[in-house]
Design goal:
The protein is an alpha+beta fold. 73% of the residues lie in helices and 8% in strands. It has helices spanning 2-53, 56-79, 85-110, 119-242, 248-279, 291-305, 327-344; strands spanning 287-288, 312-316, 324-325, 351-358, 361-368, 391-396.
């Protein structure tokens, strides 16, 4: 845009210079026409003075005026050499009348007699000369009016060019100001964006450091808690081995201690897993797993820690495969589902852990008679109308 404005402004400047040159030439033509008419009048005056007085000075003045007239006409022809056909035609007519009048002047001077015996012939020449002078004056006046009209047109065009140039300069200044403001805003926005990016990076770095600290903290807590729990579990096993003939209630309490210790260990594992998941550092170790044995052990563990005495039943569809799964992650997920089922089920209501297969997927399903799951939070959890089940949680592997 700036380049286009500069180009148009440059073209307008060239046009303005051309108009100025045309105006100057027009003024010179008008001035030359005035001088031509004035020299014609001087030549006439000198002739008359010489005819009346016979003075050589008047004759000299006449001849100098004639020479200036010829010079003025030659200059006029040169000035209008590139003019219109009409202007060149008028210059030719003016020249013709000028030379015809000069011929009359020469005839008048040649027939001059000091005794003024030629007054009749001189009067006839004067009459003819006045007729030529009137025609000559009319042509000069018309040509002069034409040049003045051209002068007005050139001046008006020059004014328009100056006005347009001024508008272009103002427009260019405004566009430059807008561009500078736009660049300033862009730089400011870029700096602000960079600051925001740096702030986000610092925030992410702080979050990562905090997440690493949380992992370290929970790892340390898990380690510190696991030590006494391991002692408790080992002591319970020793007691179990030493009390082989103990009462069933005593052995049952030992099983509860062991299950509680396992549950506490699992809680610590869950906390550590959640912390790693939040920080994006959670890893999955896939190994072949006997899922039926895994589910039976899981149900057995929860039977001993079940304070509500809620019966937990394991139902298997007889899958004889050993899929690759992460045992710790699977235990953490299913234990959470079973804890929720126990927590929200009425006392004595049954809970079922169902192991099945759906197309090419293994399905772990926990069913209970609790408050159920809200419709908007359900994912692939159809309600079973036949058994009257209120809650159903499914895990697809």
């Amino acid at each position: 845009m700036m380049g286009t404005i500069s180009l148009v402004s440059y073209r307008n400047t060239l046009t303005l210079r051309q108009r100025a040159a045309e105006v100057e030439v027009t003024y010179e033509i008008i001035d030359n026409l005035s001088n031509l008419y004035a020299n014609m009048a001087v030549a006439e005056s000198g002739r008359r003075g010489y005819i009346k007085t016979g003075s050589p000075s008047e004759l000299g003045r006449h001849r100098r005026a004639i020479a200036l007239m010829k010079s003025n006409w030659q200059l006029l022809a040169k000035q209008l050499e590139n003019g219109t056909d009409f202007e060149r035609e008028m210059v030719a007519q003016i020249g013709d009348l000028m030379y015809r009048r000069i011929a009359l002047f020469n005839q008048s001077i040649a027939t001059y007699k000091p005794d003024q015996s030629d007054d009749i012939s001189q009067d006839a020449i004067t009459v003819k000369s006045v007729e030529f002078r009137d025609k000559f004056q009319n042509l000069l006046t018309y040509l002069q009016a034409s040049q003045k009209r051209n002068l007005r047109i050139s001046i008006a065009s020059s004014r328009d060019s100056i006005r347009e140039n001024s508008l272009l300069v103002l427009l260019g200044t405004f566009i430059s100001f807008v561009i500078i403001c736009g660049v300033y805003i862009l730089v400011f926005w870029q700096q602000k964006r960079q600051r925001n990016s740096e702030e986000i990076q610092r925030f992410l770095l702080q979050e990562k450091e905090l997440s690493d600290l949380k992992i370290q903290l929970f790892s340390m807590i898990s380690h510190e808690f696991r030590t006494p729990l391991t002692v408790i579990f080992s002591a319970s096993q020793l007691l179990e081995n030493s009390l082989k003939d103990a009462e069933q209630s005593t052995r049952k309490n030992l099983y509860r201690i062991q299950s509680s210790v396992k549950l506490m260990n699992q809680f610590l594992t869950d906390i550590l897993i959640l912390t790693k998941a939040e920080s994006g550092n959670l890893s999955c170790q896939l190994e072949p797993l006997d899922i039926e044995a895994f589910c039976l052990n899981l149900v057995e563990d929860f039977q001993f820690i079940n304070k509500n005495n809620t019966p937990i039943k394991f139902v298997s569809q007889g899958l004889m495969i050993r899929p690759y799964l992460d045992e710790k992650l699977l235990y953490s997920i299913l234990s959470n589902l079973l804890l929720n089922a126990i927590k929200y089920s009425p006392t004595g209501a049954g809970i079922s852990l169902i192991l099945g297969k759906d197309s090419d997927r293994i399905v772990f399903q926990v069913q209970d008679h609790g408050i159920g799951i809200a419709e908007e939070d359900r994912v692939d959890t159809p309600r079973s109308k036949e058994t009257g089940i209120l809650g159903s949680q499914r895990l697809l592997a």
